[in-house]
Amino acid sequence: MIIFAIETSCDETAAAVVRDGREVLSSELFSQADMHAMYGGVVPEIASRNHVGHIGRLAEMAVKNAGIAKNDIDAVAVTYAPGLIGALLVGVNFAKGLAMALGVPLVPVHHIRGHIAANYIAYPDLEPPFLCTVVSGGNSIIADVRGYTDICIIGRSRDDAAGECFDKAARVLGLGYPGGPALDKLAQGGNDSLFALPRPVIDGAPYDMSFSGLKTSVVNIVHNAEQRGETQSDKALTDKASPNKAPQDKEPGKASRNIELIDKASLAASFSAAVSDILVPRVMAAAAEFDREKIAIAGGVAANSRIRADFLRTAEAAGRTLFIPPLNLCGDNAAMIGCQGYYEYLAGARAGMDLNAYATMDVSG
């Protein structure tokens, strides 16, 4: 069975062709990261407009590179939740038109289920049940994958997602957007125990997580360094040169220079270690309680080298099998949507021309 898939939940425009849920015939991607870098994060309106401008071209490329004809397509799968509502609507409406034109079923796919399914592409022999943690820019969850479409959430972030915190920590360190890869690279030369960062525990919810306090700690460390960097003599010279300058104003570029007063590599390493310490023990404890021998991780944050290494080491020590997608399947892509779309199709999931997009939706469906 050949599924044509579309993913437009955030700032990646993607189209793919997948056969029988496991074989990727083509996977095309247009990243808008460079466009959003100047703003320090994704601007929804810009993302939506760029999806409109590129989705048709990518769809044609996906069909051509798959070596199929359009009438070979058996169904169209599309991400309909969760994500940026405007971005999602571009993909949903394109998918509606394509399904109608081809006369094939339209299959709605939850974005997080797609991330879990990326492991099926990387590991053709992987089958449920298994435990999976999905850590991305918008979501941080621990899920018990009981079946391809039977997924139960047993833990989640109570506030920010881990990926969001990576981006914000990177931004305050002057690393730009997207922050995850740059922060990971910077952390390689740092001392991960130099900064004491919080590892919150949720009372009564052992598998739930919290990342907002960790993010705030990093921001406070950098801001405090900036404030200490302005010596009394610097302030006196500035005031003398500009007597009418407001006290809160700073010399242009001052903040960026003062950041250099802290060990940024060690702060990046300490931050990565803290995120890993929040994730790994919870997942391993959940695997033990739910008696899951197989553990998978997915989502953009799964590309972080510290988190990957800690999961590998801990899973091996516990005698459990770990599944981690390659880097190209950790981020948003349409191949994972086509894979999950196949299993959703087999489970009877269908959508009509009234399919809507949703900014939030529980993965359990």
Descriptive overview:
The chain is globular and about 65 Å long. Strand 2 and strand 3 (23-31) form a beta hairpin. Residues 230-258 have low confidence and may be disordered. The protein contains 13 helices and 10 strands. It has 2 domains: 2-122 and 331-346, 2-Layer Sandwich (Nucleotidyltransferase, domain 5); 130-328, Nucleotidyltransferase, domain 5 (2-Layer Sandwich), CATH 3.30.420.40. The longest helix has 26 residues, at 264-289. 48% of the residues are buried. The strands form 2 sheets. Strands 3-2-1-4-5 form a 5-stranded mixed β-sheet, sandwiched between helices. The chain has a 5-stranded mixed β-sheet with strand order 8-7-6-9-10, with helices on both faces. Helix 10 (264-289) runs parallel beside helix 11 (305-318). The protein has helices spanning 33-37, 44-66, 85-102, 111-122, 162-172, 179-187, 212-229, 232-241, 254-258, 264-289, 305-318, 327-330, 335-346, and strands spanning 2-7, 12-19, 23-31, 75-81, 106-110, 130-135, 140-145, 151-156, 294-298, 321-323. Helices cover 46% and strands 17% of the residues. With 365 residues, it is of the alpha/beta class.
Break the fold down into its secondary structure elements and pairings.
Layout: E1 2-7, E2 12-19, E3 23-31, H1 33-37, H2 44-66, E4 75-81, H3 85-102, E5 106-110, H4 111-122, E6 130-135, E7 140-145, E8 151-156, H5 162-172, H6 179-187, H7 212-229, H8 232-241, H9 254-258, H10 264-289, E9 294-298, H11 305-318, E10 321-323, H12 327-330, H13 335-346
Parallel strand pairs: 1-4, 4-5, 6-9, 9-10
Antiparallel strand pairs: 1-2, 2-3, 6-7, 7-8
Helix pairs in contact: 2-3, 4-13, 5-6, 5-7, 5-10, 6-10, 10-11
